Amino acid sequence: MPEHEPLHTPAPVQVRTYKPSDRDVVQRLFKEGLLAGQIQKDDTGSDIDHIEHAYFQDERNHLWVADLDGQVLGMIGVLQGKGHTGEIRRLRVQKDHQGNGIASRLVEVAVEHCQHHGYLKVVFDTRFEPQCDPGLLVGMFERVGFQHTRTKNMGSKDLHEFYLDLYRQPEPQPNHTLPK
User: Fold this and answer.
1) Is 7 within a domain?
2) pLDDT at residue 10 above 60?
């Protein structure tokens, strides 16, 4: 057997709605993903301090986690932005599980949620860790339909901004239902 083949097929990651019992892991994922280890001046982090209020008071907002056999490996949220804009927030995947399609699955679920709730566009920004291949990550976002709109330098890291126009795109035919 070649070295690169897995000995077993890993169980699929389930994307599900955040539960209060996920709070500690979500807060840890949030802190691990901070740009330069600090909250940016335009981001208070209050949505993570008040998850139920931020993500569950309005059905257009939501927070999901990626769960593998009861272990939370990642997260993503959607908050209503200006007008009919959904803002993807807090896309995080534990470092030792990155590159396994978890981020892609989280983004797909968030975009489906935005379509279901009538958003006309979706925006988000992200930074890439030095060990990541930005081309692969941008490619993943582009496969979902996002366009890379600009890059801003934020100290020692670049912040990449993305945009998805749902108004002009036909609604995709998902092969699954949205997690509740």
Assistant:
1) no
2) no
Say whether 63 sits in a helix, a strand or coil. strand
- Of the candidates 66, 87, 90, 67, the residue with the CA atom closest to the CA atom of residue 78: 87
- Cα separation, 128 vs 174, in Å, equals 28
CA distances from 120 to 82, 111, 147, 156, 162 (A): 11, 11, 15, 33, 14
Task: Answer for the pair 157, 35: CB distance below 8 angstroms, yes or no.
Answer: yes
Reduced to 3 states (helix: H, G, I; strand: E, B; else coil), residue 123 is strand
- In sequence order, what are the beta bridge partners of 75? 65, 92
pLDDT digits (tens, 9 = 90+) for 131-148: 566 666 777 788 888 988
| 121 pLDDT above the threshold of 60 | yes
Q: Which residue has the higher pLDDT, 84 or 3?
A: 84
Residue 1 has pLDDT above 60, yes or no: no
Element (H, E) at 30: helix 23-32
Give the chain's domain count: 1
Contacts of residue 33, defined as CB under 8 A and 6 or more positions apart, other chains included, come to 90, 92
Host domain of residue 76 = 14-165
Token duo for residue 65: 């986690």
